Amino acid sequence: MANYDHPREKKTSFRFRIHPPNPPFYPPPLTKNPSSKPPRKPVTTTLLFVCLVTSTCFSLSAAVAFAFLFFSAADSLSTTSVSRSLLKLKHPVVLLISSDGFRFGYQFKTDTPNIDWLIQNGTEAEHGLIPVFPTLTFPNHYSIVTGLYPAYHGVINNKFSDPVTGEKFNMGSHEPKWWLGEPLWETVANHGLKASTYFWPGSELHNGSWDFPCMFYNEFVPFDDRVDTVLNYFDLPSDEIPSFMTLYFQDPDHQGHQVGPDDKQITEADVHMIMVGDHGMVGTCDKKMIFLDDLVNWIDIPTEWVQSYTPLLAIRPPANYSLADVVDKMNEGLKSGKVNNGEYLKVYLKEDLPSRLHYSDSYRIPPIIGLVEEGFKVEQKNSKIQECGGAHGYDNAFFSMRTIFIGHGPEFAVGKKIPSFENVHIQFGYCDFGH
Predict the structure, then answer these.
(1) Does residue 82 fall inside a structural domain?
(2) pLDDT band at residue 247, thresholds of 50, 70 and 90?
(3) Does residue 165 share a domain with residue 47?
(4) 3-class SS at 425?
(5) Distance CA 432, CA 435 (A)
(6) In terms of DSSP H, where are the helices of 89-239?
(7) Alpha helices in 42-149 (DSSP H)
(8) 84 near 234, Cβ under 8 Å?
(9) Which of 26-35, 99-108, 342-351 has the highest mean pLDDT?
(10) Ranges of Basic and acidic residues compositional bias (predicted)?
């Protein structure tokens, strides 16, 4: 498997520090009580985004600043911006923006002057943000806002089944029982402040003090409309403007609202913006396939055992099967040289997975997990369909799974490059206000 550290990475000092608590905080493992919930973290570690900003004069026209994050080409830049007067806010405001599937390096492959400006005038994870495993949309978005690994916040995959109740989770499941931990919008609300979210995974459910009206996800809502909705919050009376806002885009290629990055009302504003992605992407093709049916001479793996195929192979055999025996027979076949591409898949009991993955301490995680090498896919049988494309969900040690972290604002050092870090540590970041 690939190493976390890119060969060009170097240690450096920076204003905005990302670090795990000492010692690391992990709530108790998710047990077979589906209603159990990890204990709430102290305010000092959960209110990351509140500590990121100082209450200073804020230009409301600067709210448009986050719109220039979205992948503009030079000829698409607008020369106008929304005109809003200066306003002294009664509280800090933080904008957290996610672009789904924005692989680290995309910004180097096309002309993105607005992102370039943000990087030049803010702080960037020089070699990308490391997602949690599995490198999938829902587990990672919820890790970003809870500071928990999927085994602890409960969203262990985009789709999965509860082995106790038989209920199925999918990306339209909004019942609180699935979503554990405390996301930032709930933390903000629990402390008497206002928060707003726009399509961020997990924000549709009401929990704790969180009761902000939130639309259910609709991929057909134009990106411009999403930006306009968030900007309209800045037309509210000062004490009604949310302290914390999120905005989600499912497409890293879309051009959203554009505003010139050299607009003085933007560059001189004291606003903090954080732009992240949830995972990267790697190319896949039909030649990199592994078929479970090819293991039939060692063990039969029926489709009903398989919870997910690729890139995260997850298997839950019936109770009367020896899990260790299933793993041994699968690995024997895969290493035999008689299974096409078998050497690129290794199967584990979940408790034997590399500890850095943090992917064992939940009853929701199937007992047998297979890890495939970068770009390979697992299917039940050869369908003869010739296809190439892209995928994610692989080991988060692969560089291709990295995404972006860009922070802009007074407490982010200008033009600073920081080492890569896992997205769960955003929750534990803090500012050195004395710098």
Answers:
(1) yes
(2) confident
(3) yes
(4) helix
(5) 6
(6) 106-109, 113-120, 137-146, 150-153, 184-190, 223-232
(7) 43-46, 48-51, 106-109, 113-120, 137-146
(8) yes
(9) 342-351
(10) 1-12
Question: Catalytic annotation on 137?
Answer: yes
Q: Are residues 217 and 304 in the same domain?
A: no
> For residue 341, is it within any domain?
yes
Number of domains in the chain: 2
pLDDT, one tens digit per residue, over 186-211 is: 888 888 888 888 778 888 887 777 77
Tell me the C-alpha distance between 250 and 201, whole Å. 11
DSSP lists the bridge partners of residue 282 as 391
List 137, 197, 246, 310, catalytic entry: 137
Do 277 and 140 meet the contact criterion of CB atoms below 8 Å apart? Answer: no
Residue 323 lies in a domain: yes
Q: Name which of 27-31, 59-63, 65-69 the model is least confident about.
A: 59-63
Sign of CA dihedral 87, 259, 433, 46: positive
Query: Which of 390, 385, 383, 353 shows the shortest CA–CA distance to 368?
Result: 353
**Same domain membership, residue 291 and residue 223:** no
Cβ neighbour number for residue 370 with a 10 Å cutoff = 24
At residue 6, the 3 state secondary structure works out as coil
- Whole-prediction pTM: 0.78
Contact 315, 176 (CB under 8 A): no
**Letter for the amino acid at 231?**
L
Domain identity same for 231 and 176: yes
Q: CA 277, CA 131: separation in Å to the nearest integer?
A: 9
Per-residue confidence band for 380, with pLDDT thresholds at 50, 70 and 90: very high
| Amino acid making up residue 420 | S
Residue 91 has which token pair? 């509280």
